[in-house]
Amino acid sequence: MSVDVVCVGESMALVTPDPPRPLADGGPMRLDAAGAESTVASYLAQLGARAAWASAVGADPLGALLRTRIASYGVDVSGVVIDPDAPTGVYFKDPGAETTVYYYRAGSAASRLGPAVLDHLPATRILHTSGITPALSGSCAALVDAALGLDVVTSFDVNYRARLWPVAEAAPILAGLARRADVVFVGLDEAQTLWGVQTAADVRALLPEPTRVVVKDGAVGAWSDDVFVPAPTVDVVEPVGAGDAFAAGYLFGLLGDAAEADRLRLGHRIAGAALRVTGDVARLEDSC
Length: 288
Known about the structure:
The structure is a single chain. The protein is α/β, with parallel strands linked by helices. The protein has a single domain (2-280), classed as Ribokinase (UDP-N-acetylmuramoyl-L-alanine:D-glutamate ligase). It is built from 9 helices and 14 strands. The strands form 3 sheets. An 8-stranded mixed sheet has the order 4-1-9-10-11-12-13-14, with helices on both faces. Strand 10 (153-157), helix 4 and strand 11 (183-187) form a beta-alpha-beta unit. Helix 1 (36-47) packs across helix 7 (242-255) and helix 7 (242-255) packs antiparallel against helix 8 (260-275). The protein starts with a strand and ends with a helix.
């Protein structure tokens, strides 16, 4: 079996107030699945790509939820390890235009992943991962290091998370990993935080090695070298998941050998769908 894209990284059970309201108010909650890499895979599958997600979950109901929910988008989840000795991670979302999230992922099944998971991946055209994974544990850092050395097109979303590691530790590691990837996604704001750069051109100068460095600046737009595409106006429900949706749209364009500007436009379109919903993954037939 072969696929177009394998996405490697942790996903967690997501608990969100339903209907949306502050977490502190209590009341009914919705239980869902969410995670950077599985979100990318879920959008790619909806767009028509053959997408797989590789990770680990606990032998618990939350792990079963993750596998079932992510598979419902058309994603191949056969590469997900079920760990009987560690739980599935959980996080809570406090909704709003400036959403706050609270993670409970220490010691999770996915944090125990290592390079061995790569031995069981299907043949693929693209491997996608993110800077969240190396922050989880030493074995996860080794996994990403090994993944970026595979003989396929590699895609890396910097995805800096301040709650996982401090800037001083993360900045050199994430820059080093990004330099080894073929395609890099990074928000201008996180690049400024990590590396003290100011513009998309500065980011490219810092990362000359990748074939493409896509720099996103929220509602302004996105750059890829000298190509800039402004972001369309969107009425934002919440921003969580939009960056992963953008990456999925761009990678789908890459699979189809679309022009660079068209890849960025597709990234914006899928990100726009994500911005209009409270869940991490929008059903594209309902949103685009």
